[in-house]
Amino acid sequence: MKLINIGFGNMISAGRLIAIVSPDSAPIKRMVQEARERGVLIDASYGRRTRAVLVMDNDHLVLSALQPETVANRLEDEKDTGEEEDE
Fold first, then answer.
1. At a CB cut-off of 8 Å and minimum separation 6, what does 46 contact?
2. What predicted TM-score, i.e. pTM, was given to this entire model?
3. What does the alpha-carbon distance between residue 29 and residue 15 come to, in Å, rounded to a whole number?
4. In 10 A of CB 44, how many CB atoms?
5. Is residue 86 very low, low, confident or very high in pLDDT (cuts 50, 70, 90)?
6. Which of 27, 41, 45, 84 has its CA at a distance of 20 to 30 angstroms from the CA of residue 55?
7. C-alpha to C-alpha distance for 60 and 73, rounded to whole angstroms
8. What is the dihedral sign for C-alpha 71, 77, 80, 83?
9. How far, in Å, CA of 42 to CA of 23, rounded?
10. Which helix (H) or strand (E) holds 83?
11. 78 has a pLDDT exceeding 90
């Protein structure tokens, strides 16, 4: 299982991540509000401004204070490291 650091020492499973999106659009804001109401929202932003919403395969949403590009780069770095270890 590969883990990705999403800021402040919080980690998520790379295999369960579906999408990394910006929280600025109205549809994403609705998704976050609905997830909060359903109790499947995980706020890992530590009170900071949310800059990325991570959509997981089990319908959970994770809020992160990192930029989506930063999380994506960490995911790519994790994949590169994993391929080298397999060889």
1. 7, 8, 65
2. 0.89
3. 24
4. 20
5. low
6. 84
7. 21
8. negative
9. 14
10. helix 68-86
11. no
Q: How far is Cα 14 from Cα 16, in angstroms, rounded to an integer?
A: 6
* Secondary structure in 3-state letters for 18-74: EEEECCCCHHHHHHHHHHHHHCCEEECCCCCCCCEEEEECCCCEEEECCCHHHHHHH
Q: Report phi then psi at 61, rounded to 5.
A: -115, 135
Structure-token pair, residue 87: 């060889």
**Amino acid, single-letter form, for residue 15:** G
Radius of gyration of the chain (CA): 13
Terminal C-alpha separation, the chain:
17
Average pLDDT over every residue of 63-84: 88
